[in-house]
Amino acid sequence: MSVFDHKEFDNHEEVVFCYDQASGLKAIIAVHDTTMGPSLGGTRMWDYASSAEALTDVLRLSRGMTYKSALAGLPLGGGKAVIIGNAKTDKSPELFKAYGRFVDSLGGKYITAEDVNIRTGDIEIVGTQTRYVAGTESKAGDPSPHTALGSYLGVKAAAKHKFGSDDVKGLRIAIQGLGAVGYEFARLLANDGAILTVCDVNQEVVDKAVKQLGATAVGIDEIYDVEMDVYAPCALGATINNDTLKRIKALVIAGSANNQLATNAHDKIVKEMGILYAPDYVINAGGVIHISSEAANFSSEETAGRVRGIYNTLDLIFSRATEEDRPTGEIADELAREILAAKARGN
Ligand SMILES: NC(=O)c1ccc[n+]([C@@H]2O[C@H](COP(=O)([O-])OP(=O)(O)OC[C@H]3O[C@@H](n4cnc5c(N)ncnc54)[C@H](O)[C@@H]3O)[C@@H](O)[C@H]2O)c1
């Protein structure tokens, strides 16, 4: 089957298959859309069962980056790359150098950064072969605090629409995952008087949240059953699915995780259940805003202002979804397409 007939093909501008025999590199770079600017998106390393699975992932993820950056108001397009391989056994300096040469061959159409299983150290090696890298330790650094801030503001915007006030004091928030983003997100909410229930596979961070944030700890499978106003997925993808929706009692879903909905159909299902869902790529855009500050030369004030803008973007999405009685994810996609169309027309 050709890429053009692939179900996830969405007018991608360029899809590059990268192979380097000496290092064993097998990667796919997908540049989805450069209407707004050069495409930016992380590189993911995953032991895909097949190259077809890798292609599906990179086509879908690169399209998501176009929408994410457009709605975050960034002068950047959407791209993404996947390296096919086992992150524990297949990484080598030669592999990342070979990959860097492929990134460089695109002449700046694609700027790469970290994603799942890729660390800043790996990107530093890529950066020895190309200047089209972002999110390195020596430049923008860790995006997680900005992702946490944007997600916290997203909860406030959702609370305003669902509960009539964006004050989170007294709101019962169930947080799944207390990692780089989740812990800071929890801290911001606890500071405002939210009542937290948390879980993580790492007992150390759970104990810390209990002690420092006054959170209640539950087991990783119990999180779906607790009494909550807001469910905040901050760990895994696809936790909003047919099974968990039978258990989640929240009226708001707002968290930092990527790909929260198991399928696109769950956008409509949560709406019909009366749950207000903050579309994942909108609420967690703080990270890409942070990383793009390097590629787009934003000052730290401008970056922070753009992260704060996530509140207004979600406010707009929630208002339009209510007025038109439509799912929030559908509205977010539509707004992103409107931004791209206006730019293409030169407005
Ligand atoms: N870091 C960013 O700036 C950023 C930006 C956008 C989106 N995201 C998304 O936000 C989520 C969190 O990112 P992060 O950077 O904090 O990652 P992280 O790896 O630092 O934290 C993830 C946490 O989830 C925990 N976890 C794993 N499996 C779990 C389970 N079954 N139940 C509960 N907890 C579990 C881990 O122990 C870890 O503490 C991810 O989905 C990520 O893709 C992160």
Write the layout of secondary structure elements.
Blueprint: E1 14-20, E2 25-33, E3 39-46, H1 51-71, E4 77-84, H2 93-105, E5 110-114, H3 120-126, H4 144-163, E6 172-176, H5 182-191, E7 195-199, H6 203-213, E8 216-217, E9 230-233, H7 242-245, E10 252-253, H8 265-272, E11 276-277, H9 280-283, H10 286-295, H11 300-324, H12 328-344
Bound molecules: nicotinamide-adenine-dinucleotide.
Residues 143-144, 147, 176-182, 199-202, 205, 220, 234-236, 256-258, 284, 287 line the site of nicotinamide-adenine-dinucleotide (NAD).
Binding site for NAD(+): 177-182
Keywords: NAD, Nucleotide-binding, Oxidoreductase
Pfam family, one: ELFV_dehydrog_N
Tell me what the structure shows.
By secondary structure, the protein is α/β, with parallel strands linked by helices. The protein folds into two domains: 3-64 and 79-126, Leucine Dehydrogenase, chain A, domain 1 (Rossmann fold, 3-Layer(aba) Sandwich); 144-339, Rossmann fold, CATH 3.40.50. The chain has twelve helices and eleven strands. It has helices at residues 51-71, 93-105, 120-126, 144-163, 182-191, 203-213, 242-245, 265-272, 280-283, 286-295, 300-324, 328-344, and strands spanning 14-20, 25-33, 39-46, 77-84, 110-114, 172-176, 195-199, 216-217, 230-233, 252-253, 276-277. The strands form two sheets. It has a six-stranded parallel beta sheet, with helices on both faces. The chain has a five-stranded mixed beta sheet with strand order 1-2-4-3-5, with helices on both faces. Strand 6 (172-176), helix 5 (182-191) and strand 7 form a beta-alpha-beta unit. The mean pLDDT is 95. The structure holds nicotinamide-adenine-dinucleotide. Residues 143-144, 147, 176-182, 199-202, 205, 220, 234-236, 256-258, 284, 287 line the site of nicotinamide-adenine-dinucleotide. It holds the Pfam family ELFV_dehydrog. The active site is at residue 80. This is Amino acid dehydrogenase. Residues 141-346 form the Glutamate/phenylalanine/leucine/valine/L-tryptophan dehydrogenase C-terminal domain. InterPro entries: Aminoacid_DH-like_N_sf, Glu/Leu/Phe/Val/Trp_DH, Glu/Leu/Phe/Val/Trp_DH_C, Glu/Leu/Phe/Val/Trp_DH_dimer, Glu/Phe/Leu/Val/Trp_DH_bac/arc, NAD(P)-bd_dom_sf.
